[in-house]
Amino acid sequence: MGISSLIDKTNASSTAIELQLLQKLFKNVPGVVYQFQLFDDGTFCFPHVSNGAVSLFGYTTEEIMMDASKIFSKIHPGDRESFYRARKVSQKELLNINIDIRLVSDGNNIKWINVNSTPERLSDSMIWHGYIHEITEEKEKELLLLESEGRYRNIIESSLNGFVIGKDAVVLDANDAAIRMFGYESLEDMQLATREGLLDHDDPRLMELRRIRAIAGKVNGEVTGIKKDGERFNCFMSSTQIQEPDGTFQSMNFFIDLSERTKAEERLAKSQQLLSQAEAIAHIGSSEVDYKTGKFLWSDEFYRIHGLEPNCYEPTPEISERFLHPEEKYKVEIFNEAPLKKLDFLEFDSKIIRADGVVREVSSSWKLIYDADGCPLKMYGVVQDITEKKQLEVALKLSEEQFRGAFEYSAMGIAIADSFKGWIFINDSLCNMLGYSREELLKLSFQKVTHPDDLELGLKYLIELEEGRRDFYKIEKRYLHKDGSIIWVMVIVSMIKNKDGKPHQFVAQVENISQREEQDRVLEELNEQLAIRAQELLDSNKELERFAYVASHDLQEPLRMVASFLQLLEKKYGHQLDDKAKEYIGYAAGGAKRMKELILDMLEYSRVSSVAIQYENVDLNRIVGDVQLNLLPILENATIIASGLPTVSGIRSQLSQLLQNLIGNALKYKSTERNAIVEITAIEKQKEWEISVMDNGIGIDAQHFEKIFVIFQRLHNKNDYSGTGIGLAICKKIVEKHGGRIWVESEADKGSSFIFTIPK
Ligand code: ADP
After folding, report:
1. Rg of the chain's alpha carbons, rounded to an integer?
2. Tell me, what's the pLDDT at 268?
3. Sorting pLDDT into bands at 50, 70 and 90, what band is 318?
4. Per DSSP, what are the bridge partners of residue 297?
5. Which of 409, 412, 440 has the alpha carbon at shortest distance from 512?
6. For residues 735 and 741, is the Cβ–Cβ distance under 8 A?
7. What pLDDT is attached to residue 720?
8. Which residues contact 334 (CB under 8 A, 6 or more apart)?
9. Residues with CB under 6 A from ligand 1
10. What would the pLDDT profile of 535-551 be if each residue is shown by its tens digit?
C-alpha cells in the first residue's frame, strides 16, 4: 500500500500521532521512506525522510530536510541524466519512477540504489512518495551474470561448432556456425525451418539419442543433419534438455560437422582398399615394425603370401619366424641386427613354408627410420612372392643353356650376325665347315667366305627381310673353304627383331650340301637312265602285246586246220581205226579245243591294252544285270544280289568283262555243300568307289592271294575246274587301266571277296 494513501486515510487531528507511529515503523525499514516535493517555481524539499537515509546517504534526516540538494549531489554523474529524465517523465505522465542508479560516497565507493516512487499532483507542486533501498549486491551479481552471459555468448558466437536452442520444434536461437553448417542465410532464415527439419528423423541413431535424452536429460552422439538445400551430412550432436519454470522444455544443442571427417575417413578407407587391392594384384605385402611400441603391422596381402587369412593372428616376430624355411632361419639374425648396425636398407630373398605347407620364395625390402639420436623408430617393408619369377628365371636359364647347347653342338653351321658389327656368334660346325678357327672366322665376314660369283645371290631377299616383307629366305650358294675349295651350302637366313619390332640381328643356318649336290647329280643320272629303261620297257611291252595278239590271231588259222582235219580224220576213217586210235584222236581234238580257248583268252588279254580309251558313264547296276543274263546257263540255284551300285566313268566293255570274270569265278568256284550266293556291293570313298564281289564258295588260301592275278596261274586242275588262268590277270589289267587296284580277301571253305577300286 502506497504511503500517500496511508497518509490520506489519516484525519488532521491524528496526523501528528500517526506520523510518530509511522516514524517508528519506518525506523526499522532497511531502506529510506521519503516524500519529495517539487514546487512549480523549481524549488524542492524532502518533507519527510526516514532514518534509513543515514546509512545510505551519510546524512541525518534533518540535514536532508534542510538541504535537499545534498541527496542529488550524491548521484553518480553517469546516472544523473537518466534519473532527471525519469523524474520528468513521471511528472509529466504521472507514472511511477522505478530506476536503478548509482551513488558515489565519500570514499568514491559506489552504491547501487533502487528508487521507486509514485507521483502526486498538488496545487502548487508535485510530490513523490517513495522508497529507496540499496541493491549494490544484487546489481553486482546481475552484472557478473551479464558479464558471464556475454562471455558465453562470445564463445558460442565465435565457435566453429554450431549451437542451436530450440523449443517446441522452433529454433529460438542459433550461432553463426550453426546457421552456416545447416546452409542458412541468417537466424531468421533458419527460424523459418522447423527444428525438426534440421535433422533426419529416418536416421535410427536420432531416435535412439532422443530416447536416451528423454531419460537422462542429455545425450551425445552422431546424427544426420539436413542442410537447407536438402543435402544430408553426418554430424555430432550434444543435446541437453532443460525444463523451464512453466514446465515446458528447451533444448540446447551443439553440433560438430563430421562430413569432412567422414569424407576423410571414406578417402582413407578407399585408399587403404586401393592399396590392399594393388598389393593383392601385385602380390606385394607390406609390413611395419614400430621399435618404440614393439608392434608389428601386416597388410592383408602379407597374410595371404603366408597362406593365412588376413588378420587371423596378431602379427609378432615369432609368427613370421615360424613361416621361415628351416634353411633360412639364420636370416632372422640379419633382420634383428639391421637396426643395431644402423642399416638404412635391407633386402633379401628367402624361402617360406606357407600355412598350407607349400614352399614359396619371397623377396623382401626394408627401410629403417631413426630419430635424431640414431635410435630406430620404424622399419617399413614390402614382401613379394617371387616363386613364379624364380621359376621363370630357372626355366630361362635352362632354355638358354639348351639353346646354347643346340647352337654349339648343332650339325648345322649357325651364325648370328649384326647388320653393322658383322658376325657375333659362330658355332663349331660352321668353323669346321669352312676350315677356320672361331677367332679367324669372327674377323672375316659372310662376303669374304662367299664365292665371288654368288655375292649378289640373295641380296634381294636380304633387303626384303630387313624391310620386314619376308620372315626368312633360303638359298643355295657356294662358300670358299680356307683351303680354297668350294663348298656348296644351303643357307636359311631369318631375322631377330628387337623389342620395338625393328630388325636387330640375322640368324644364318648353313647346311653343307656339297655331298648332297653330288648325290643329287648321281640321282639325276639314275633317273634319266630309269626313264630310258621305262620307255624301253613300255616299247617292249607294246611289242609283246602286239606279238601276243598277232601270234594268237595267226595261231587260230593252223589250229582251226588241225581241228578240222582231226574231225575229217575221225569222220572218214573212224570206222577203220581201232579204239586206241580213236582215243588218241579224241585227245588231239580236246587239246586243239583247249588251245583255241587259250588263244582266245590271250587275244582278250592283249586287247585290254590296245582298246582305245573311251570313257563314258557306266551304270554298274545295268552291267551286273547284263552279266546275269550272260551267265544264265551256269546260274542253276545260285543267287546274285547287287544293290546301290554307282555309275562310274570307264570303258563299258571292259567293266562288263571285269564283272563277268569275277561273278563267273564266284559261280564257278562255288562250294559243293551250299548254293552259291554272290553279293556285289559298293562303298563310296573320298576319291574312289570300292566295289566288292563276295561269294560263299571254296575260298582261297592266303598264300595264293598274289599269285592268282598272274597270267596262267591256276590253283586247280583243269579236270576239277575248267579255265585258262587268264581271267583274273585280265581283271587286274582292266582295273589298273582305269586307275584302280584289285585284291582278294578270302578264307578257305568260307568264301572270297574280290575288291576293286574305280576312281571317281
Ligand atoms: P581260271 O578261273 O581260268 O582258272 P582265273 O585267273 O580266273 O583263272 O583264276 C585263277 C585262279 O584263281 C583260279 O584257278 C582259282 O583257283 C582261283 N579263283 C578265282 N576266282 C575264285 C573264286 N571266286 N573262288 C575261289 N577261287 C577262285
Report:
1. 68
2. 80
3. confident
4. 288
5. 412
6. yes
7. 84
8. 346, 348
9. 665-666, 669, 695, 697-698, 700, 708, 714-716, 723-729, 752
10. 887 777 777 777 777 77
d(CA 706, CA 754) in angstroms, rounded, equals 12
- Residue 384 near residue 282, CB atoms below 8 Å: yes
Read off the C-alpha cell for 403: 639353346
Non-local (6+) Cβ contacts of 167 within 8 A are 248, 249, 250, 251
Mutate-to-test residue for ligand 1 from 694, 708, 718, 756, highest number of ligand atoms within 8 A of CB: 708
Distance CA 110, CA 137 (A): 11
Element (H, E) at 166: strand 162-167
Sheet-wide strand order for 162-167:
170-174, 162-167, 249-257, 232-243, 218-226
| Bridge pairing between strands 677-684 and 639-642 | parallel
CA 263 to chain centroid: 30
Are 675 and 638 in contact by the 8 Å Cβ rule? The answer is yes
**Probe residue for ligand 1, chosen from 631, 657, 665, 694 as the CB with the greatest number of ligand atoms within 8 Å:** 665
Q: Where is 755: in which H helix or E strand?
A: strand 751-759
CA 572 to CA 569: how far, in whole Å? Answer: 5
Name the residue with cell 580236246. Answer: 590
346 Ramachandran zone, left/alpha/beta (phi>0; psi -120 to 50): beta
**Reduced to 3 states, what is the DSSP secondary structure of residue 362?**
strand
**Cβ contacts of 580 within 8 Å, gap of 6 or more:** none
What are 704-749's pLDDT values in tens digits? 999 999 888 888 877 788 888 889 999 999 999 999 999 999 999 9
What is the model's pLDDT at position 553? Answer: 76
Nearest to residue 385, comparing CAs of 420, 345, 422, 358? 358
SS3 assignment for 278-299: HHHHHCEEEEEEECCCCEEEEC
The single residue listed with the C-alpha cell 541468417 is 186
Can you tell me which atom of ligand 1 is nearest the CA of 751? 24
This prediction's pTM: 0.37
The residue written with cell numbers 592383408 in the block is 300
Listed residue (620, 631, 639) closest to 661, CA to CA: 631
Q: Which atom of ligand 1 is nearest to the CA of 726?
A: 6
Question: Is 370 strand, coil or helix?
Answer: strand
Secondary structure of 409-439 in HEC code, one letter for each residue = HCCCEEEEEECCCEEEEECHHHHHHHCCCHH
d(CA 616, CA 321): 91
Distance 705 CA to ligand 1 centre (A): 10
CB 342 within 8 A of CB 377: no
Distances (CA, A) of 91 to 5, 67, 101, 151, 573: 18, 22, 18, 39, 205
The band of 593, judged by pLDDT with boundaries at 50, 70 and 90, is confident
Reply yes or no on whether the pLDDT at 107 is more than 90: no
Q: DSSP character for 149?
A: H
228-242, 573-587, 603-617, 665-679: lowest mean pLDDT where?
Answer: 603-617
Question: Three cell numbers at 149?
Answer: 552471459
> In angstroms, how far is CA 397 from the centroid of its own chain?
30
pLDDT in tens, 132-172: 988 888 888 888 877 777 776 776 777 778 888 888 778 88
